[in-house]
């Protein structure tokens, strides 16, 4: 919110406080000031001018030659192209040598042969944003009041010498979304009670609001208080200068005196109002209700809206004329011909207003205040003040009475707190008298008995409800700078990683050493991607109010997020990608409110792990590269149970012939393989391999103790064996049998060759292994190795009918 320093001075004595000092003090007491700006900064030599004579330029169809009084003995000639300039006007003149917005310098010159001693300025050329320039002057120059004195600086007339404080309001301090709310806050800081000017509301007792309309609210939860006043004989015109400048400095565009008054009240009280053209309502009743599905309303922005039953609408008894708390209807807007005005002052359901504003993208000053809350004690006061101002500035007559329906009970809220609680929370030794003085500065009535404070909170501070809120208020006004600085006292705890943390760190180092890079994907994803590559059956956990459909479901796998990351890289011509991620997936159980969180490890490889260089061409990754990385990292965990790879032809999204399920003992803990070509195509990927493991199961699994052994003193021996086997027999089957029959000195079995093709009959394959033997206590002899080797050969022939080559 933008707060005018000069406007604030109307309520408080700030003669000894500069805008910068005020901003610093407010920032240190709870409301952050993002910026302090003075609109006239950077501008100079811009004065009031009086257009004495205006004639058309002889050599132009749109320029005018003006004789302007700028407070000097002689008139100054200025050429101007504004379409709305006319003789007798008070205008804004930039003198030769002046600076306008953008640091542009104005010089004497000629325009099509005519001398021009300066420039007639629009508001945009003084730095005003297009969105706040009055619509009447949007395409031309701004006309100053008749009492403006020629030759005087223009900045005081436009309130450009004011300091504008930009407040960053947190949702809990919506009371500061009004000038009166800010005045109470500043008054508490400087120990002053703000003084608000009174207004006099004169009603026409010969006429009653009952002659014009009656209001009704179908559901009091939609509008707990709804009030309408009638002002007749109104003359819609341009607002006075003081009103326009206050609105422009607050970032609001002036329109006309009636609408500007409602916006002025919005800024002063924080109470949104709406003004209807009474005659355009074409009814003597207003009914507040929920809209019917598909009901139409054309709003003030000219857009026709198809409403839903979640919207609250103001109707003339039959058709909607406004969206409650959000935007009025086009058919009942205030126009130049309006003579009777209906002023609405109400409070609407904040949740409904927020949903409506979001649904139609109609976030406004009014809707933001209804969403965060308003001062319920000033609803009717704000409406009365608006009626009085319309009578004063638009020549209207206020009809006696208010048509109202309200269920509100306005009273102070009482919150109790002890002195001990305050001092214990803040670490202070504040006295009872100091606390009472702070509550008095805040404008809170307080009763104290033996250190117990019963504090009456006025409705203007609806954010205060519990003890902690009062502690915060005392701390703010006492001064955060005055609170003692102490370090927390806690017993020292030895720092150490738990088993899970150690395993996760080890996994990261291992995979990064293998050439993979860590990725962090979104936890929220689409409904389709959330259910891909799932490792267990589960329903999805959906957000109630997601920001978008793409981020609406908690993920139940990591692999789909990594595939998105790889697709992102490939789209940017990075074809060699190797990523891993360690994170949580979320499963939903009907018996539990919160989802079950399970730690997973996933990875994706595509392209090559090596770059092309002078040593040769890179080799594309395949299933065996992926399997090798997994085998090595799993082997480093030291699990007591074996990890086995079992062919998996049924897993959705994976290639049926190049995918394996991973088992820890008898329990499935993951899978690895090639992404199905159709799934890869959906992600716009080439041949891609991926894996996902239940890391939580690995963390919880039993592990062997780490035993350090000396380097063997005795040499080992090796034997190579080449086997001709059926192509249906897997490497794992052969390796298992070799280890089983290889004897106690067999320490390693390594496959070093597979061959199918010429000189090998169909349905067969050749597989060659190196068997390594080692006796750690003695030198091995030929007879021991030969005997163990023969047992392996015999077992292979008997079990799988192999041919030893």
Quick structural overview:
The chain is an alpha+beta fold. It contains 20 helices and 40 strands.
Q: What can you see in these coordinates?
A:
The protein has 20 helices and 40 strands. Helix 11 crosses helix 12 and helix 19 crosses helix 20. A hairpin with a 3-residue loop joins strand 20 (320-323) and strand 21 (327-328). The termini are far apart. The strands form ten sheets. Strands 28-31-32-36-35-34-33 form a seven-stranded mixed sheet, sandwiched between helices. Strands 3, 4, 5, 6, 7 and 10 form a six-stranded antiparallel sheet that branches. Strands 12, 14, 15, 22, 23 and 24 form a six-stranded mixed sheet that branches. The chain is of the alpha+beta class. 37% of the residues are buried.
Secondary structure elements and their pairing?
Elements: E1 2-4, H1 5-8, H2 19-27, E2 32-37, E3 44-56, E4 64-69, E5 76-80, E6 90-100, E7 104-105, E8 109-111, E9 114-116, E10 119-120, E11 164-168, H3 179-189, E12 203-208, E13 214-217, E14 225-232, H4 241-249, H5 257-269, E15 273-277, H6 278-281, E16 285-290, E17 296-298, E18 304-306, E19 312-315, E20 320-323, E21 327-328, E22 341-347, H7 350-359, H8 365-372, H9 379-393, E23 397-400, E24 403-406, E25 413-418, H10 419-426, H11 432-442, E26 445-449, E27 452-457, H12 467-478, H13 499-513, E28 517-518, E29 524-525, H14 527-530, E30 553-554, H15 559-570, E31 577-587, E32 596-606, H16 623-635, E33 643-647, E34 654-664, E35 667-675, H17 677-682, E36 688-694, H18 695-700, E37 717-726, H19 731-741, E38 746-755, E39 764-773, H20 782-800, E40 803-804
Parallel strand pairs: 12-23, 13-16, 28-31
Antiparallel strand pairs: 1-11, 2-11, 3-4, 3-6, 4-5, 6-7, 6-10, 8-9, 14-22, 14-23, 14-24, 15-22, 16-19, 17-18, 19-20, 20-21, 25-27, 26-27, 29-30, 31-32, 32-36, 33-34, 34-35, 35-36, 37-39, 37-40, 38-39
Helix pairs in contact: 3-11, 4-5, 5-9, 7-8, 10-12, 11-12, 19-20
């Amino acid at each position: 919110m933008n707060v005018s320093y000069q406007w604030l001075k109307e309520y408080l004595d700030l003669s000894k406080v500069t805008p910068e000092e005020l901003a610093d003090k407010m920032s240190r007491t709870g409301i952050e000031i993002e910026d302090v700006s003075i609109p006239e900064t950077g501008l100079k030599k811009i004065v009031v001018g009086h257009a004495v004579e205006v004639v058309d330029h002889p050599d132009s169809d749109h320029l005018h030659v003006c004789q302007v009084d700028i407070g000097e003995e002689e008139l100054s000639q200025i050429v101007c192209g504004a379409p709305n300039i006319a003789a007798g006007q008070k205008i804004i003149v930039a003198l030769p040598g002046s600076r306008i917005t953008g640091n542009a310098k104005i010089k004497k010159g000629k325009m099509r042969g005519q001398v021009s001693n300066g420039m007639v300025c629009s508001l945009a050329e003084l730095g005003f944003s297009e969105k706040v320039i009055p619509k009447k002057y949007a395409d031309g120059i701004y006309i100053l009041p008749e009492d403006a004195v020629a030759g005087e600086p223009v900045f005081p007339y436009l309130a450009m010498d004011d300091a504008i404080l930009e407040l960053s309001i947190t949702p809990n301090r919506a009371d500061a979304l009004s000038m009166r709310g800010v005045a109470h806050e500043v008054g508490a800081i400087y120990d002053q009670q703000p003084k608000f000017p009174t207004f006099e509301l004169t009603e026409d007792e010969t006429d009653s609001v009952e002659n014009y309309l009656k209001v009704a609210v179908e559901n009091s939860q939609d509008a707990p208080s709804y009030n309408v006043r009638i002002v007749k004989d109104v003359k819609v015109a341009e607002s006075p200068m003081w009103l326009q400048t206050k609105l422009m400095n607050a970032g609001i565009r002036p329109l006309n005196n009636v609408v500007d008054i409602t916006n002025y009240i919005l800024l002063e009280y924080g109470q949104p109002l709406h003004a209807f053209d009474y005659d355009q309502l074409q009814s003597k009743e207003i009914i507040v209700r929920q809209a019917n599905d598909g009901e139409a309303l054309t709003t003030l922005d000219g857009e026709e809206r198809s409403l839903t039953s979640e919207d609250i609408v103001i109707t003339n008894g039959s058709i909607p004329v406004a969206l409650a708390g959000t935007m009025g209807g086009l058919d009942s807007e205030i126009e130049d011909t309006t003579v009777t005005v209906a002023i609405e002052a109400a409070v609407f359901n904040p949740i409904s207003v927020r949903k409506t504003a979001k649904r139609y993208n109609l976030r406004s000053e009014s809707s933001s205040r209804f969403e965060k809350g308003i001062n319920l004690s000033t609803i009717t006061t704000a409406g009365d003040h608006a009626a009085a101002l319309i009578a004063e500035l638009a020549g209207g007559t206020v009809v006696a009475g208010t048509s109202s329906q309200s269920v509100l009970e306005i009273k102070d809220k009482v919150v109790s707190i002890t002195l001990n609680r305050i001092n214990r929370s803040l670490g202070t030794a504040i006295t009872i008298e100091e606390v009472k003085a702070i509550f008095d500065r805040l404008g809170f009535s307080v009763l104290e008995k033996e250190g117990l404070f019963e504090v009456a909170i006025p409705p203007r501070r609806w954010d205060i409800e519990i003890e902690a809120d009062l502690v915060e208020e005392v701390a703010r006004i006492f001064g955060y700078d005055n609170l003692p600085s102490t370090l927390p006292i806690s017993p020292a705890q030895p720092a150490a990683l738990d088993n899970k943390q150690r395993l996760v760190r080890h996994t990261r180092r291992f995979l990064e050493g293998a050439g993979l890079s860590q990725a962090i994907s979104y936890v929220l994803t689409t409904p389709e991607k959330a259910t891909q590559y799932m490792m267990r059956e589960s329903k999805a956990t959906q957000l109630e109010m997601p920001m978008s459909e793409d981020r609406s479901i908690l993920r139940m796998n990591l692999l789909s997020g990594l595939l998105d990351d790889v697709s992102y890289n490939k789209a940017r011509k990075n074809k060699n990608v190797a990523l891993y991620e360690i994170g949580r997936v979320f499963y939903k159980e009907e018996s539990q409110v919160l989802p079950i969180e399970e730690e997973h490890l996933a990875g994706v490889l595509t392209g090559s792990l090596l770059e092309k260089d002078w040593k040769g061409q890179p080799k594309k990754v395949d299933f065996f590269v992926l399997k090798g990385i997994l085998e090595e990292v799993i082997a480093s965990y030291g699990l007591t149970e074996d990890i086995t790879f079992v062919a998996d032809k049924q897993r959705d999204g994976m290639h049926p012939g190049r995918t394996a399920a991973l088992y820890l003992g008898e329990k499935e803990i993951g899978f690895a393989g090639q992404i199905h070509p159709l799934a890869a195509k959906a992600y716009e990927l080439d041949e891609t391999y991926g894996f996902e493991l239940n890391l939580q199961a690995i963390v919880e699994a039993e592990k062997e103790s780490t035993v350090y052994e000396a380097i063997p003193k005795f040499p080992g021996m090796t034997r190579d064996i080449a086997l001709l086997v059926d192509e249906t027999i897997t490497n794992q089957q052969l390796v298992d049998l070799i280890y089983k029959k290889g004897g106690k000195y067999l320490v390693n079995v390594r496959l070093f060759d597979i061959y199918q093709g010429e000189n090998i009959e169909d349905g067969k394959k050749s597989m060659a292994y190196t068997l390594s033997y080692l006796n750690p206590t003695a030198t091995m002899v030929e007879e021991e190795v030969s005997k163990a080797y023969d047992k392996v050969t015999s077992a292979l022939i008997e079990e799988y009918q192999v041919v030893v080559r």
